[in-house]
Amino acid sequence: MEFSNEIIGLFMIGAMLFAIFVGFPISFTLIFLGVVFGAWGFGVKLTIFLMTLQFYNSMMEQTLAAVPLFVFMGFMMEQAGLMERLFAAIQMMLARMKGSLYIAVLFVSVVFGAATGIVGASVTILGIMAAKTMNRSGYDVRLAAGTITAGGTLGILIPPSIMLVVMGPVLEIPVTDLFAAAIIPGVMMAALYLIYSVGRCWINPSLGPPLPEDLIEPDKSKIALELLWGFVPPTILIAFALGSILFGLATPTEGAGMGAFGSILLAMGYRKFTIKGFYDALIKTLEISVLILFLVAASNFFGAVFSRLGTPTMITELLLNLDVSASMVVILILALVFVLGWPLEWVPIVLIILPILAPVLLELEVDMLWFAILVAVCLQTAWLSPPVALSAYFLKGVVPEWDLKDIYLGMMQFMVIQLIGLAMVFAFPAIATWLPVYFYGGG
Amino acid sequence: ETTIRVQSVIPSSADEIVMLKDFAEDVKALTDGEVVIEVLPAGSVVGVQETLDAVDAGLIEGGFAWTHYWSGKHPAAMLFGSPVAGAGVGIDNIAFMSWFLNAGGKELYDQLWKEMGVNVKGFMLQPVGPEALGWFKEPIETMADFRKYRFRTPPGIPGQTYKDIGVASVAMGGGDILPALEKGTIDAAEWCCPKPDSVFGFQKVLKHYYLQGLHQVVVNADLYINGDVYNALTPLQQKAIEVAANASLMKSMAYRIRENGLALDKLVNEDGVILHDTPADYFTEYMAAANKALETNAAENAFFKEVWDSQKEFARTAIPFWAGAQTSNANLGRAYAAELAKK
Amino acid sequence: MINEDQDKIDFSEYENIGDELLADAGGAVGKTLPDDMHPLARKAIYAIDNFSNWQGRIACLLVVPIIFGMFYEVIARSFFTAPTLWAYDLSRILYGVSFMLGAAYALMRGLHIRADFLYRGFTERTQGRVDLILYIVLFMPSMLFFLKAGYDFSLKSFLQGERAGDSTWAPIVWPVKIALTTGVLFLCIQGVSEILKSWYAATRGKWPV
Ligand code: NA
Ligand code: NA
Description:
The complex is a heterotrimer.
Chain A: H1 5-19, H2 26-42, H3 44-59, H4 66-80, H5 82-94, H6 100-115, H7 120-137, H8 141-157, H9 162-171, H10 175-203, H11 220-246, H12 252-269, H13 275-308, H14 311-322, H15 326-340, H16 346-363, H17 368-380, H18 390-398, H19 404-427, H20 430-440
Helix pairs in contact in A: 1-2, 2-3, 2-13, 3-13, 4-12, 4-13, 5-6, 5-7, 5-11, 6-7, 6-8, 6-10, 6-11, 7-8, 7-18, 8-10, 8-17, 8-19, 9-16, 10-17, 10-19, 10-20, 11-12, 13-16, 14-16, 15-16, 15-17, 17-19, 18-19
Chain B: E1 2-8, H1 15-30, E2 35-40, H2 51-57, E3 62-66, H3 77-81, H4 93-102, H5 105-116, E4 120-127, E5 134-136, H6 143-146, E6 150-152, H7 157-164, E7 168-170, H8 174-183, E8 188-189, H9 194-200, E9 208-210, E10 220-226, H10 227-231, H11 235-269, E11 274-276, H12 280-300, H13 302-342
Parallel strand pairs in B: 1-2, 1-3, 6-7, 6-8, 9-11
Antiparallel strand pairs in B: 3-10, 4-10, 5-9
Helix pairs in contact in B: 1-11, 4-5, 5-13, 7-12, 9-11, 12-13
Chain C: H1 2-8, H2 39-59, H3 63-80, H4 86-101, H5 103-108, H6 124-160, H7 174-204
Helix pairs in contact in C: 2-7, 3-4, 4-7, 6-7
Bound molecules: sodium ion (2 copies).
Subcellular location (chain C): Cell inner membrane
Transmembrane segments (chain C): 58-80, 92-111, 132-151, 171-189
GO molecular function (chain C): transmembrane transporter activity
């Protein structure tokens, strides 16, 4: 039986959805499927040539050079121990308040979300810093675990974010616009978390009682000094990276380089800079960059085969003929992203699913910037959805006395909040689109 | 029926694509529907920079860009796509067509692909020049003023020449220019000509516009068809493409003058853009540097030298005539424009 | 008081601090491979993994010049109106080269993302079988095709003396293409080690490292 190329493309997608769940590394699975279905559709010689072209093209995509730079910056900050200082300062300041540690956790999450682009570090460090004190003060485990894991995910939404850097080229949106668009939704999500955890505390103080007397610092001037020392370094770093990007001194990649440079200086300033630590950060940076960027290249190849087979055009025409409304399509895609977020990481979702569906959205004249932010907020749930939510294992790893079941139940509560936030951005697109227009005039 | 899928390097809304589709209609009509040229958006199968490689390999049957996009593969591509400062001898886009169609340019153009080692048949389709010098935040009176700004320049030799005369030249892709201007990463920029520039939206950020520039006086967009695909066509079909391509040269020129005129009128009269004359010292400095760059390349590459020599040989007799004749047109036209501006 | 509390936390005991994406990293150069492994396999695995480890240790250094290049460019352009022509190209070339030359290292470290919510639950023997089959049927053939195409691709570019067509600086680009091909070659080599390791897991029921 003879199949048209467009149909072969459909088989390819079907095979992909099955094959990646076998559990072999996704990049190599995609390369293999691209080669097989490309060879079937237009010959093996052209297919492997297309592979080299796509890999080369991905290697020369300057925007993506921001990925290793932001990652490196995150690791250097972690080494400088900046997060701990800020947390301790806020904890001191608010010690007598109900639910003060929830506030401290979320506040630190936002500040560090604005300074780095990675997620995992936040959850682990917040866990280490907050959990002991939370236990001593008799905090509710579920609410505590939920706040820590949810707060930790903010770093991927609040710019700079490697997820947004990767999403930019995929959806053909300038990364600066994405950064500007993500600021308000990111702060909004933090506010929603805060309202939820502190709100519950005020209704039921046993969920987050004030700190025990021995943890309260009586000396006001010491508190002030700690606050200063907690705030200044992250502010400098935010100015270096995010500031230089948003105020036009630098492109996102250059800004990432500024941030990386600034983080080295800060680590030196704090006498935490060691050659071993520096090298360790470089190695970890390479590890994260490779796993993201190699998958970027493999997905680009997979997508190019799909495109060369002509299937995207067919799908677009098909969907347009169905005459569904733009918002319906957006809702369906978000639902798909949400569901895939349970078993998958953000990387394959952004790289494989979005390019397939983007042409339809363009035809329907959906505001891609708005759509990108919706996807980003939706993907945040991928970190909060058990059982494949690494945040949970991280937290369990550093706070073994917390039951995994309680951690899961805590995360689920925040997933609901996440969906509320998503609904808000959906209903009021200006939450995402207002700031970029305000900054850059838009259009 | 043969379908030639042509991947372009620019968004489908661009004027070049409008004209490319017009060319495709002509080919279809002339071949009685047997040769269908289908335009694929930029990046749909391969990245922009890989378009020629993909056509060469047969991954796509055709590609559409500007010849100088392939300067990285052979430096002489620049002499066909955007000979800097009119090849250093004042060739404008109409004179270029004279060289191309009548003075051996076309034969050298066919040879370019062989020198590059790619299996493609090329067709020059759209003369796009002259391009404007560009857009500035503040008026510039002299080269010293020019050197105060970070200026987005075209890639390759035309851009390097700016660097040579001390302009802070910044390289960046088309899509990044407007955001970079809005945020002040750069202060000045060039892209093309009034119509494409206004589609880009430069007028929203910068108001001082200079039409007379030398970096891309001549600009040509062309079509590449995979050699095997082309050779499989019947002689009649091949002739049809050639005839349609030659027609496209004239049609594009006609289309461009009107469209750019309409766009400029809107820029000046509705968007508050102010037109200026380019500082006189720009021409001498840029010309000298361009000639130096051309000489360096000619010394390094025999085919480059051959093409450039041919252009200079053509220019020796043609340019004194053409430039002399054009001067009266230009003067008369500018007097008329000045009169219009007064009203 | 509080500070003293904080000081007591020894962060070094939490090895996986960093990013969630690194959490599943299982691989490492096995210093003590199991005794019941064929000595040749043991030697091969050790040699290959060690080789890939060195690739990673070197490739990771490439990010340093990117950092300084970007910093220099921003300062020179913003404060001295003296942008460079090279910073843009340097950053993308080094970034591209680093992730391709780091690919085999990441394979050795088991870092390439798996959708493993099923795989994780398999016995080690089943994991070994799945991996063994897929490394032989799926990984190796596609990488060998890739190697062949990459070789032709870089050779052609080298002979042309190809330069970047989309930048003012216009640097030569064939080194990037050679790095691409070299990265694929390294992946093929590391693939051999992975086949041997999954073979061991498939037959002995446990991973050697
Ligand atoms: Na962030
Ligand atoms: Na131009």
